[in-house]
Amino acid sequence: MLDLVQKIKDFKMTRRSFIGWTSAAAATAVIPVSRGLVVKAETGTGTDDKNGEGIWKAAACWHNCGGRCVNKVLVQDGVVIRQKTDDTHPDSPDFPQQRGCLRGRSQRHQVFGPDRLKYPMKRKNWAVGGGKKELRGKDQWVRISWDEALDIVSSEITRISKKYGNEALWATGAGQITKVLSLNGGCTTDYGTTSWGAWYWAPTMMGVAEGWTDLGINDRIDLRNSQLIVLWGENPAWSSPGSPTYNFMQAKKAGARFISIDPSYTESARTFQADWVPVRPGTDHALALGIMNALLDEDDQLTNPLIDWEFLHRYTVGFDAEHMPEGADSKENFKDYLLGTYDNLPKTPEWASEICGVEPTRIRELARQIGSTNRVALLTGWGPARINDGEGWVQAFSILGMMTGHMGRSGSMTGVSCHRAAGNGGPWLVKAGTDGYLSVKNPVTNLLNHNEIFTAVLDGKFHQKGEGERKANIQLIYHQFNATLQTRGAMKMGIEAHKKVEFVVSHAYVLTTNAKYSDVVLPVTTEWETEGGMLQGNREMYIVYSNITDPLYEAKSDVQIAKELAAKLGLDSKLLYPVSEKQAFFNKLATSKVIAENGVDYEPLVTITAQDIKEWGVVGTPQQGRIGLKELIDQGVYQVQRKPGDNFGFIAYKDFIENPEGKPLKTPSGKFEIHCKTIHEESKGGWTEIAPIPKYVPKTKGFEDTFENWESKKKGKYPFQVYNPHYLRRSHSTFDNVQQLREAWPNPVFINKSDGKRLGIKEGDTVLLFNEYGKTLRPAHLTETMTPGVVALPHGAWVELDEKEEIDKAGADNMLTGPIATGLGTSGWNTAVCNIKKWDGEPLKEDVKWDQRIIKF
């Protein structure tokens, strides 16, 4: 009886206060009452349900899909019994609701899942210096107290930094712990191009927007003025849930035609009834060059004008010999490269077809459609540039828009359309506030490129960009708010690296891949367990979410962990966190801004009264804003209402196009730089040299590498290309543990039917995908909507490695990617080659039937 009482105290439970999955009845069947999962339905927060079933509260949908949609939960008698999405106003094309997708609607299964980590824990066979390091990933876990956990972490930080120097501490990703370690003498950090691929650095050097901080496409209302929309490697129906697909549908209703250039016939292509152009992964560069060669070949300014020569001559440098930047060799102009004037290799549609797989007649047809249509939206996702040697593709795609004049005008645009700006470019109409936390400079300058993070650990050296080789001796890995081991390349090598170092610690809410291969795991809260917060989605709205539940079990926030770790290290945490988490939330609300009616100025978003400040128990000053504090908290979103002709529209590059001399671009010439010396010079401090114009080079681990002999076209050891589409089961790797999503989206490998027939693979067969970097298993889905010779392995599955066989069972995409750095340091995860064969071992069970990673003590 005393044991039971103690358990009840441990869980802070009441009979009425546990959380269910879908309903109170379901909860009693799945989660014992003794787990005490308490909802915090604060008085005065939320709105009453119209049917009297409880209180609706605004809840976070915080994952990195780009949608960031409205999410609300119904709390009844202390139980979350239902979720819903945006119903704050009537839905319309001009003023759409911010509706969530199936992932956001499954959020309660993530927050309250039975696999939540409950307590701090350490590996059974861990000891100072690592203990039995080879057991990382398969050792037993031992429950420990927070005090013991933080003692271990702080003492290991101190021991290792004293023994090896602060450079031996590697804080992965970006988060609160980096700040603590910086205050404690510094740490090694990492960087890379993540989702952007080659769009991260290269475009800004030539005067083009990269698609996040700066937007190179027009807003969603102007998209309706486009006559032709080319979705080049873009599938918003999967990769940008929320309103983007709805916005594209408005353009279709307004008369736009769609073309989809993609290795697969996507859900977006089907939805928009697009003309599909199948292309091999990583060969978009060659296709773009073939299109531009065809434009040159067929252009006649009197009878068949396809090229906008006025645009090229006025707004660009480097297209032809007569318009080169100062000091450049005239023979290095782009036009002569297309024509093969000096290399005797014209980049004709026939030349391009051999590489990209698109028929020459089809390439010419694309050139005519893009060149002869007045208003074209050339839109691409980041995915086609998430390749090795990808900078040339970014240059070529951008130049195609310049060559046809589809930039800076209504209905005409060329640029990145994904994540927060999918089909809706422009600066924020609602701007984020600041929390009042502080940062300190990191004294350690070691920066590991994502392509080299694991080789740096294993080989003891890395390339410091702009400098050259440096030595490395990483002995401690601190995983904070990230999924580094899961979502970076060369995963098998990453696991080896994690077994080499002396100490690994992770923050995690479930047993993620980072956590699985750690020595100590610190349970963290989800966003539903915080004081609340704000999330930016598309440019027109800002989401505010409330606290839904007290921290479950013994979970703590990242900020709280950082503060307590700082204290263990003898640091003053107030140097980083001078305010409480509630005050930080209030600060963000109080300093947020919204566009004024004139479309130029900004004003406070939130009205705050003296009574609000008193009720919140925070420090602040009353102010007049657009919406009251309580109304915003209850509503969960503020959205700027749009309509055609308003003051909030956006035409990318409009100021420059209208006044190139008065509003020059931030390039040496002040113009778009088709011949870009900056890219060329920067690449000399990188990994491989990039030409100033987009000269085609075979992509490392790209199509050409599927051949043993390119000239004879004899296929090699790894004859298939594999790429990694974003998939509705996950947001990157998040949600992969949610059983409902596993059931709805089974995560096969997509294979062309002709390839399956040739290899004796039938629908549902377990297949092995393998190359020199690793092996993984997946059930086959045979389809005619996949380019032959290409397989699609969805991104983000949580690795389940059979270490004896060295085979992953989950389809973890980064088992097949290598530690390859090219160009400026671009991460090339969509360029990989492999072989596939029918698996002759035990067939895989459906993922939904796998045991969850539930830790029991």
What profile does the largest beta sheet have? 6 strands, mixed
Percent helix range: 25-40%
Percentage of β-strand residues: 15-25%
Number of helices: 28
Mean pLDDT: 93
Shape: globular
What class do helices, strands and sheet pairing give? alpha/beta
Number of strand segments:
39
Radius of gyration: 27 Å
Low-confidence stretches: 1-38
Which sequence of strands runs across the widest sheet?
6-5-21-20-19-7
- Distance separating the two termini: 19 Å
What features would you describe in this structure?
With 857 residues, the chain is α/β, with parallel strands linked by helices. Helix content is 26%, strand content 18%. It is built from 28 helices and 39 strands. It is globular. The chain starts with a helix and ends in a 19-residue tail after the last strand.
Short key terms for the protein model shown above:
857 residues, 18% strand, 6-stranded mixed sheet, single chain, alpha/beta, 28 helices, 39 strands
Question: What topology emerges from the helices and strands here?
Answer:
Layout: H1 2-11, H2 24-30, E1 47-48, E2 55-59, E3 71-76, E4 79-84, H3 107-111, E5 121-123, E6 141-143, H4 146-164, E7 169-172, H5 176-183, E8 189-191, H6 202-205, H7 220-223, E9 228-232, H8 236-239, H9 244-253, E10 257-262, H10 267-271, E11 275-278, H11 284-298, H12 309-315, E12 316-317, H13 334-339, H14 349-356, H15 360-372, E13 376-380, H16 391-403, E14 413-416, E15 430-431, E16 447-449, H17 453-459, E17 461-464, E18 468-471, E19 476-479, H18 484-487, H19 491-498, E20 503-508, H20 513-516, E21 520-523, E22 532-536, E23 541-546, H21 558-568, H22 581-591, E24 593-595, E25 602-604, E26 606-607, H23 610-616, E27 627-628, H24 629-635, E28 637-639, H25 654-658, E29 672-673, H26 677-683, E30 707-709, E31 714-715, E32 720-723, H27 739-744, E33 749-752, H28 753-759, E34 766-770, E35 775-783, E36 790-792, E37 801-802, E38 807-808, E39 832-838
Parallel strand pairs: 7-19, 8-16, 9-10, 9-13, 10-11, 12-29, 13-14, 19-20, 20-21, 26-27, 32-36, 33-35
Antiparallel strand pairs: 1-2, 2-3, 3-4, 5-6, 5-21, 15-24, 17-18, 22-23, 23-28, 24-25, 30-31, 32-39, 33-36, 34-35, 34-39, 37-38
Helix pairs in contact: 4-21, 5-21, 11-14, 11-15, 11-16, 14-15, 17-19
